[in-house]
Write a structure and sequence with these properties.
This protein is an alpha/beta fold. The protein has 9 helices and 14 strands. It has a 5-stranded parallel sheet. The protein has a 5-stranded parallel sheet with strand order 3-6-9-12-14. A 4-stranded parallel sheet has the order 2-5-8-11, with no helix packed on it. The chain is globular and about 65 Å long. It starts with 6 loop residues before the first helix and ends in a 10-residue tail after the last helix. The mean pLDDT is 92.
Amino acid sequence: MSGFDVGQWVGELRGVRNEWREAQKRQREPAGREFPSREALAGVAEQLKGVLFPMRLGPFDLRQDSEDFYVAHTLDAALHALLAQARLELHYVARHAPRPAAEIDAEAREAVRAFGAALPGIRRLLDSDVVAAYQGDPAAHSVDEVLLCYPGVLAMIYHRLAHRLYRLQLPLLARIVAELAHGQTGIDIHPGAQIGRGFFIDHGTGVVIGETAVIGQRVRIYQAVTLGAKRFPVDGHGLLQKGLPRHPVVEDEVVIYAGATILGRVTIGRGAVIGGNVWLTADVPPGASVTQAGVQNAAASGEVLSAAAQ
């Protein structure tokens, strides 16, 4: 023991916890863990990376002749662990509107079954992301290099998994998985963001993609790009209205260079190129090239953004 007299502090901390639980209408009865575990989901995500790419992200001593055995064993363990977390989330959601436990458990099991069924499709999407990274970076020597080393690819592995959980009405699990990727890569993608095939984030640090962003196919973005919201409408009580479309729509084959900030429900047209450090709050037509100098000149002359898009 340290010799500190911690008894008073323990009592004060208990009082603060009880105040919070009472304000949040939490149950006082000891009933085990109430909400999902970040640590458990980190383990699930690590297992799923190996399931999706066993020979590259699985055990270092894995051989192809035992690949299916490893995938079967690891996937079964991951799905059972995920089921336990899904039950916790659904019970947590139902705390203010109780439902039969059997109904919640059946919903959790069906969600996890659907998640498992989606994994082959997720692998195909990730293959397209890996190829896009290899083809989009002249410094890449192989597809294996980008899978093993590129933070943008790692972020997309987590995002493809998190987005499926989000679509299956498990938003808390999805957000935890997304934040695991954020912590490891510095890339912040909300699990609600819709991202098409062949997406490549080069370098990646500081990228932010909001919940309602929609990104088409074969899009490439660089570090410190923000696809964010411009304003946050409130309801009659002054509370933020949630779930409204508020982030950009980026169409196919767009390139967005480092430091660009695009805010609001604007559309960046197919094949457009957005230069570094550009600040945009208006639509960009297909095929346009927007530079920082062009935006500044258009603003100085009072012209609309289309004058900056050449």
